[in-house]
Amino acid sequence: MSRSYTKEFVQNVVSIALTCGLPVERVAKDFNVDVEDIEEWIAAYKDTNATRAQNANIHRENELLRKENASLKERIETLKKQIALFEFTLD
Question: Which residues make Cβ contacts (< 8 Å) with residue 33, sequence separation at least 6?
Answer without folding.
Answer: 5, 13, 27
